[in-house]
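Journal club prep, shared notes

We agreed each person brings one worked example of a sequence with its structure written out as tokens. Mine is phosphoribosylamine--glycine ligase. I'm keeping it raw so we can talk through how to read the token line rather than staring at a rendered picture. Sequence first:
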Amino acid sequence: MAFTTLRLPPYPKLVTNNRFSGIFASQFHSSALPSRLVLGSSSSCVGTLSLSINHHSSPWSSTAFTCFSQTSELSVSVDTYGSNIIGGGGREHALCYALQRSPSCDAVFCAPGNAGISTSGNATCIPDLDIFDSSAVISFCRKWGVGLVVVEPEAPLVSGLANDLVTAGIPTFGPSAEAAALAGSKDFMKTICHKYGIPTAKYQTFSDASAAKQYIKEQGAPIVIKADGLAAGKGVAVASTLEEAYKAVDSMLVEGIFGSAGYRVIVEEFVEGEEASFFALVDGENAIPLESAQEYKRVGDGDTDPNTGGMGAYSPAPVLTKELQNVVMESIILPTVKGMSMEGCKFVGVLYAGLMIDKKSGLPKLTEYNVRFGDSECQVLMVRLKSDLAKVMLATSRGELKGVSLKWSPGSAMVVVMASKGYPGSYEKETVIRNLEEAECVAPAVKVFHAGTAFDSDGNLIGTGGRVLGITAKGRDLEEARDKAYLAVEEINWPGGFYRQDIGWRASPQKQFSRNA
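Then the structure, token by token:
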């Protein structure tokens, strides 16, 4: 297939720099989600859609590969009656940044985007494409000669967008609805683990609160309660007492705080150890690992207080040694790929394994699967990636990963997430943020990725979401990356925000604790 630079018709606010870059934007309410979304919460809409332009029959003769990226992350606040949808994501900003740097990628667009993506020059915002309308997406792809679609959000994946694109003959990076059930239903994931011998914590699934509580009483605490479906990263409760576990069960099964995502719960044994994130690209039969990363889920220093969507991360993660990464590939990733193929739903896209390195055995156990890149791990991975992301994604969609390897910059990268005060609960909105340009200039290799940002009527940058900024830095080692990231954080003037001060402590606890002394 020959790829050529597509001469685009005039489009508003198109950013050019010897290439095109841009963003589609579409915001939506959970009530508008299609009825095909059966495995996840109708109020959990998190994601990305990226497209690459392939104009194999173009009358123009340039030979560069043109990439079109549409990306959407939504931080979701859910209750029984509906959702508060907040558009734009830091993970998606990082993907736009990486795609724009891809030598074979000439155009990047993102939806819904945010103020930071639109002003960074990493992409151009286009507000009028509904990514939950498959026919609209397909029509757009055909009109613009799109040659690769990268579907990142789990909600449209579970609802079947990738299925529809593939049926329309459009190369797609992202799993089918059937394969996306690995993320859309934790019970499905656990069933696959049990059937194909993939190490995971002991569990039982319940839809009846009384039965769940009886099982919890028999097992004792600590214990883990999980909503079965998509709950925007908030559907996990680690209960240290029986009372906390009973309360978590009632909140999901009786009160319905996660809507349809919590109609079933998984009650899982508590595994003591260290968490790590493992990413692999999968083309249906073959898988290649990305670099290792480790995320900080808890909102408070020292891993205290509630879980969040992620308060920071770093790469590489010392806990995932090369030997342990081989174990993860052989015991978790490859059996999953083979198992999904045997089940008749081959997985294509990025497989994100949440791991717990068991303190007793030193071996990894699978805690969850996501079928997208992680936020905030994506930020540190994308600033370290040296390979052409667009080409690798296309090879994945074509089933051509065999023999492909990825190149990474040496050293380390770290991201510190700045969130609105009150997050992950009710948080302040529309607070003014200043000094971001100064923050990016405090040291080389510092990049501020935006999540929930916008401009107010006076032109001020404001925070509109829970997690708002991801201050990311590269260094020769983790210590240098951390020092740069926190130096940039301290330059930002945002009274309405907060951040953890101990990101990276697992890798070098003595240094980190001395910093906070």
